[in-house]
Amino acid sequence: MIDTKAIEEHVLGILEALGEDVTREGLVETPKRVAKMYAEVFAGIHYSNEEVAQMFDKTFTQRGRDLVFVKDIETFSFCEHHMALMYDMKISVAYYPQGKVIGLSKIARICDLVCRRLQIQERIGSDIAEIMTMITGSEDVAVLIEAHHSCMSARGIKKTQAKTYTQTLRGVFAKHPEQLGGFYHG
Ligand SMILES: Nc1nc2c(ncn2[C@@H]2O[C@H](COP(=O)(O)OP(=O)(O)OP(=O)(O)O)[C@@H](O)[C@H]2O)c(=O)[nH]1
Ligand SMILES: [Zn+2]
Question: GO CC terms for this protein (predicted)?
Fold first, then answer.
């Protein structure tokens, strides 16, 4: 589990190092608030992909292999390089079932939990694809992500309009991304 006490102490240290008056009203409870926020936004750090797959393993028998595509699951994450927000993030997940389908809300739950880690956008895609394969048994999985990175917009190079698109294409989608039809960014 997250070490709340240690986070509070370190945040207090950062505020002091910033030259802040840590006794002023608005800051007195800030270390506690940040520790509570981190427990929420980093809740996925302590679960492996296998554990996430076990957590959301709710499937239904379904004959046929018709494409399933869940588009625009809105979420956010934090980049591991700057601990900065990835925002306006939309994740789309597609797969060809192999005799069973996963409950649709579980796909969104998987996306959210994977994003509750210190991440890079590319690995968010590969983690989700791996978990989808573990649960559905299907190798034919695609994860498309678009996001703004605050480490690119609010600091450094300051490109406020730049949006990053990543496509994790597995199985048939690697060979035939056109199977994603109008959803394909490329
Ligand atoms: N590939 C990838 N890179 C990312 C992601 N999030 C942040 N980065 C990049 O990680 C890199 C870290 O580079 P460094 O040179 O070590 O850090 P920096 O000096 O703060 O770099 P600048 O952002 O260029 O100022 C930066 O180029 C970020 O844009 C991500 O999701 N995927
Ligand atoms: Zn960053």
Answer: cytoplasm
Nearest CA, atom 29, ligand 1: 152
Annotated catalytic residue 82:
yes
State the complex-level ipTM: 0.91
Domain of 118 in residue numbering reads as 49-180
Task: Tell which residue, 152, 117, 147, 148, has the closest CA to residue 131.
Answer: 117
Whether residue 160 sits in one domain with residue 113: yes
Q: Is 148 an active-site residue? A: no
Q: Are residues 23 and 75 in the same domain?
A: no
Task: Determine the 3-state secondary structure of 30 from DSSP.
Answer: helix
pLDDT above 80: residue 184:
no
Please indicate, yes or no, if residue 185 is contained in any of the structural domains.
no
Give the predicted TM-score (pTM) of the model: 0.95
Is there a catalytic annotation at residue 10?
no
Tally the domains of the chain: 2
Angstrom CA distances, 71 to 68, 88, 144, 176, stand at: 10, 14, 9, 19
Q: Which of 46, 81, 176, 185 is catalytic?
A: 81
